[in-house]
C-alpha cells in the first residue's frame, strides 16, 4: 500500500543500527528512504518507510502550512524575543531579540535557511500562541492521514517531533500546493534588513544550485538524534517524484543519496521500476 501506516519505531542507537542494516540495493547512507511518483503515487523505492523517527527541521514545513492555512497577515511585523532563543540545543541565530521581520520574511527564512528563531516566532505569533500552533499542526497531520506523526514544537529541535517517510511524503505533496512554499523553499539565497545592516542567507540544500535538478519543494533537517534529513518534490526525467531521506550520517550523505536515487530513476524504465518494501 502506498504511503501505508507505520509499524515500527526507532529512537535509540540499537534501533538506528537495525534500520541501517535493512535490505538496500542502492546502498544508501540514509536509514530511511522513500521515492514515489507524485502523480500516480507508485512507490519506486523504499527503505524502512514505516519507521517512526525524529525528523528535525522537516517540521518547519508543517509550521508554515498551518500558518498559511490560517490566513494570517503575511506583512504583519513580528518581533524576535528571548522566547525564541534555543536553550534546548543551544543553536545559534543571527536574528537577535528585538529585531523585527514580517511574517513573510520569517516564513522565507524558516523554509530556505532553516532559521530556528524564525520558526519559533511563527509559532509564538500564531493565534492562541505556540501551544495552539502545535495543536493545529497535529490536527492537520491527522487530517492528511499522517497517523504516525507527532509535533511537539515548531522548529524541529525537539526529538519528540517524529514521523515516518510514508507520512512525510503526504506532507510534501500537500505543501507543494502552496506557491509561497514552492518559491521560498527553493530560493538559493535571501537577504533581510536587521537594524542598520543586511543579513544574507543561503539555502541549506546544495542541490538547489545543481542544474541537473528541477526541485519544486525541499526542506533539510538535522539534529544529532535525527541525523541528516532531506525531503523534496522534484522532477527527474519525465517523472514528478517525492523523495524522503532520513537519518543519514555525514553532512553530504543525504545529497549523495539523492544523486544516487536520481541516477537510478533515470536508468530504470517506469515499467521495470523496483518495488522495495523492507
UniProtKB/TrEMBL annotation:
Gene3D superfamilies: DD-peptidase/beta-lactamase superfamily. InterPro entries: Beta-lactam/transpept-like (IPR012338), Peptidase_S11 (IPR018044), Peptidase_S11_N (IPR001967). The keyword Signal applies. The keyword Oxidoreductase does not apply. Keywords: Cell shape, Cell wall biogenesis/degradation, Hydrolase, Peptidoglycan synthesis, Signal. It holds the Pfam family Peptidase_S11. Residues 22-248 form the Peptidase S11 D-alanyl-D-alanine carboxypeptidase A N-terminal domain. It comes from the Bacteria. Belongs to the peptidase S11 family. This is Peptidase S11. The lineage of its organism: Bacteria, Pseudomonadati, Pseudomonadota, Betaproteobacteria, Burkholderiales.
